[in-house]
Amino acid sequence: MEEIKRQPKKSIRFFNDREVRAVWDDENNCWWFSATDIVRAINNEPDYTKAGNYWRWLKRKLKQEGIQLVSDTHRFKFEAPDGKSRVADVLNSENVALLAKHYPNNRANEFLDWFS
Fold this sequence. Notes:
Elements: E1 10-15, E2 18-25, E3 30-34, H1 35-43, H2 48-64, E4 75-79, E5 85-91, H3 93-101, H4 108-115
Antiparallel strand pairs: 1-2, 2-3, 3-5, 4-5
Helix pairs in contact: 1-2, 3-4
């Protein structure tokens, strides 16, 4: 009998008119949030490319400080603005709070208040 693969639950939330995409993980019983979307929302950045570049820079900076928020296993496909599915780094709720705590400026405080 052929196994039917269920589509994961998806959610889109908005912070300051910037979408924050999420995917439900049945196995771990938690939501995973797009790291680039979080950076884009915190920085109020309209450009996905700039937000992605900032996320990659921030991820390297935090890793140098001994803070690793994502690994290769923390990746899901999200639909990009161009309609294509792309693999993205994701954070669970605990790591969203950790990111906000270590964000280079205090802009993350308002986001964390909204997120909580």
